[in-house]
């Protein structure tokens, strides 16, 4: 039995979506890139993923139109970092809904704390994924901060191409 099927030509849009997004690494990479972690080494270290697996996923994500690269200078060398495309930014409601679902329906481990999805436009926490539960405005990556107390960190999301 094959571990994975090719659903890219299926009529069902859920199957076609899962053909691209069905690997958990894909959504975790999109999450990190939207948080501004776009360099290969950062992604590898942050995710705890092998270089070979990360390289394959990044190639797949570029081919699927989720990521693109931009050049930057470091140590006199031109390098590339990964940035989200509009297609990846469109996954924000899905990622936020996964976070909300995880907060509600999974057991928080010892040392954990409630993650807040803060809508910077109004400054309030939202408990919805697509529109702010406080002000009703649509949620865009550049308007969101994920507050992660267990890391003592706030991650302001980046817009597509950012």
From TrEMBL:
SMART domains: HTH_ARSR
Native organism: Nocardioides simplex (Arthrobacter simplex)
Name of this chain's protein: Transcriptional regulator, HxlR family
Superkingdom of origin: Bacteria
Any one GO molecular function term: DNA-binding transcription factor activity
PROSITE patterns: HTH_HXLR (PS51118)
PANTHER family in the cross-refs: TRANSCRIPTIONAL REGULATOR, MARR FAMILY (PTHR33204), TRANSCRIPTIONAL REGULATORY PROTEIN (PTHR33204:SF18)
CDD domains in UniProt: HTH_ARSR (cd00090)
